[in-house]
Amino acid sequence: MEYKINDLTDENIKNLLGVNDKNLKLLASLYGCDIVYRNDVFNILTDDIERINKFNNQMDYLVNNVNDILIDENFIKQSYEDNVNIKYSSEIIGYSNNGKPFKCKTYNQHLFVHSIYNNDLVFSVGPAGTGKTFLAVLLACQALKRGDVNKIIITRPAVEAGESLGFLPGDLKEKINPYLMPIYDALDIILGQEQKDKLIEKGVIEIIPLAYMRGRTLNEAFVILDEAQNTTEKQMLMFLTRLGFNSKMLINGDVTQIDLNISKNKSGLVVAIDKLRNINRIAIIEFKTNDVVRNPLVQEIIDKFKVD
Question: Where residue 58 falls among pLDDT bands split at 50, 70, 90?
């Protein structure tokens, strides 16, 4: 049975097929038969009418979304299991300063967003480029605009800077600012530089080193800890116990990028995830390389650099 696609760009076809035809192989596995792609035509090699109809419906759905989102393993599986009823790719989760809408680009991003809506504490773990930091900042800004929180606090440890911090001018807060540029960039896109600067000046948005968090109780705040893999167990416990009433806490990290001296300190992120699984109102989202939404080459680079 043939399914013909029309008017797709080469980039869209690559998105549809996946890296090294990964998506095509997954579809064949799900349908239990060979599926071949050649010259804009998919052939599903079966006489089972039910499977053919479901495949055609799913392909309609994938093709309709191929220009807007990354067609990844989770997206294909979910659309197969739900008989193509999933609608997350059309959901707008926020806007940029100039009115550009932002949507989830992978199924794990969708899980991440809705986990933040529905939980007090969310861990997101995965490689660079999966949107963890940007989505966290976007949702924090949306919560502030709605009046759900009165303050945004964004922090991170300074571990990976190591001795080089001593060569930077200023106090600890000024020294760490260069390492917070992805957060400032996200705020500029979402709020605009002028609005961002005003909110920082008023203290509505705080961007501070983790060391400045000790002794505080954070009520009615959206709190983001970035690069959490570089916290010690003691630092992680200190941070987690800052959570106050009517607050949300989001912890981002990549356990493959730990810069701590592991012989002396365990990563607080690894310890926390291990200890806090299966607790009500705590969610853990694990991003994979197929959630990377940068240039497709980034996925392949990350895969090649993985340590077995």
Answer: confident
Among 267, 250, 245, 246, smallest CA distance to 258 is for: 267
Q: What does the pLDDT look like over 270-285, one tens digit per residue? A: 999 999 988 888 999 9
pLDDT, residue 161, reads 45
**Residue-level length of the chain:** 308
pTM of the predicted protein model: 0.69
Could you tell me the residue ranges of all domains in the chain? Answer: 2-86, 90-305
Identify the CATH assignment for 90-305 out of 3.30.1460.10, 3.40.50.300, 3.30.830.10, 3.40.190.10: 3.40.50.300
How would you classify the pairing of strands 41-44 and 205-209? unpaired
Compute the average pLDDT of residues 179-207. Answer: 92
pLDDT band at 180 (very low <50, low <70, confident <90, very high): confident
Between the alpha carbon of residue 83 and those of residues 49, 51, 53, 112, the distances in Å are 15, 11, 10, 22
Which long-range contacts does 297-301 make (Cβ < 8 Å, 24+ apart)?
Answer: 298/128, 298/129, 299/19, 300/19
The CATH fold of domain 2-86: Ribosomal Protein S8; Chain: A, domain 1 (3.30.1370)
Q: What angle do CA 87, 191, 91 make, to 5 degrees?
A: 5
